[in-house]
Automatic annotation (TrEMBL):
Domain (Exonuclease): residue spans on this chain: 47-230
SUPFAM superfamilies per UniProt: Ribonuclease H-like
CDD domains: DEDDh (cd06127)
Keywords in alphabetical order: Exonuclease, Hydrolase, Nuclease
NCBIfam families: PRK09146.1 (NF006602)
Domain of life according to the entry: Bacteria
GO annotation, cellular component aspect: cytosol
GO MF: 3'-5' exonuclease activity; nucleic acid binding
One GO biological process term: DNA metabolic process
Protein name: DNA polymerase III subunit epsilon
UniProt lineage: Bacteria, Pseudomonadati, Pseudomonadota, Gammaproteobacteria, Pseudomonadales
InterPro entries per record: Ribonucl_H (IPR013520), RNaseH-like_sf (IPR012337), RNaseH_sf (IPR036397)
C-alpha cells in the first residue's frame, strides 16, 4: 500500500552494501554488513525491532538522547525477555521541561554511561532488523546525529513508522467541505501514540518511558497490520 506521489524508499539492501564499503568505523561496518531484508519480504517474515528514544528536547542538533528502549517482535509475538533499555548521560544539560516529560532526573544520569559506551551493543542488536518507531524524525534523527558526533559518520536504516501509517488512514484534511470545518465539525484525528492505540482497543501505558513506548509501538504495529493490512504485505510497502 503506497501513497500516490510518495517518495520511493531507498534500495536499502543496496545502500547497506555501499555503506559497508565506505564507512571507516568497524562498528558501523559490521552493522551495514549485516544487511537488511529485501523490499518484497512479507511482514510476517521480517525481523522487527521496536525502538524508542527519550531526549532532552526535540531538536537533534541541540538536544541529546537520555534513554533508549528496544523490543524485538514479530506479528504474533513480542519477546519481552530480549528487550533492552539504557539510561545514558546526555551531552547537554537536562532541562526542567524534559525532566517533567520523561521523569529522568539529574541523579539518574549522573552515574549513567555515555552513549558511546553502549553504542557497540546497540548497533549489534539493531543489525539486520527492521526498526519500528512512532515518528521516525526523532529516533532516526537523534541516532544519526549521535553517531555523526561520536564516529564522524552517518547512521542510516529503514524504519516502519506507525505514526505515518496512522496518518495514511486519518489524513488531517478530509473532503468534508469548508463549511463543516469552519463550524468545527471536522476535527483532525490525533495520531499520537496513546490516541492511536485507543482506536485499536489497546491499553494505556505510562507515556515517555523509552522501553514502555517501544513495547506500545510494537503492539500498535501488530494491531495496524491485523486490521488494515495482511501478514503477507511486503515490508517495502510500509518502510521508509
Amino acid at each position: 500500500m503506497r501513497r500516490n506521489g510518495a517518495t520511493a524508499a531507498p534500495d536499502w539492501p543496496g545502500l547497506f552494501a555501499q555503506l559497508a564499503q565506505t564507512t571507516r568505523d568497524p562498528r558501523l561496518a559490521r552493522f551495514y554488513q549485516a544487511g537488511t531484508v529485501s523490499a518484497d519480504t512479507p511482514l510476517e517474515q521480517a525481523p522487527l525491532l521496536a525502538l524508542d528514544v527519550e531526549t532532552t528536547g526535540l531538536d537533534c542538533q541541540r538536544d541529546s538522547i537520555v534513554s533508549l528502549g528496544l523490543v524485538p517482535f514479530d506479528l504474533r509475538r513480542i519477546r519481552c525477555r530480549e528487550a533492552s533499555y539504557w539510561v545514558v548521560k546526555p551531552l547537554c544539560e537536562l532541562s526542567s521541561q524534559s525532566v517533567t516529560f520523561h521523569h529522568i532526573t539529574h541523579s539518574d544520569v549522573r552515574e549513567a554511561p555515555r552513549l558511546s559506551n553502549v553504542l557497540d551493543e546497540l548497533l549489534t542488536i539493531m543489525a539486520g532488523k527492521i526498526m519500528v518507531v512512532h515518528y521516525r524524525t526523532i529516533e532516526r534523527g537523534f541516532l544519526d546525529q549521535a553517531v555523526r558526533h561520536l564516529l564522524g559518520d552517518q547512521l542510516q536504516f529503514p524504519v516502519i513508522d506507525t505514526m505515518q501509517l496512522e496518518a495514511r488512514l486519518h489524513p488531517r484534511h478530509r473532503r468534508a467541505g469548508w463549511l463543516r470545518q469552519l463550524l468545527g465539525r471536522q476535527r483532525p484525528v490525533s495520531i499520537r501514540l496513546a490516541d492511536s492505540r485507543l482506536r485499536y482497543g489497546l491499553p494505556l501505558y505510562q507515556a515517555h518511558h523509552a522501553l514502555t513506548d517501544a513495547l506500545a509501538t510494537a503492539e500498535l504495529l501488530q494491531a495496524q497490520v491485523a486490521r488494515h493490512y495482511s501478514p503477507t504485505t511486503a515490508v517495502g510497502d510500509l518502510w521508509n
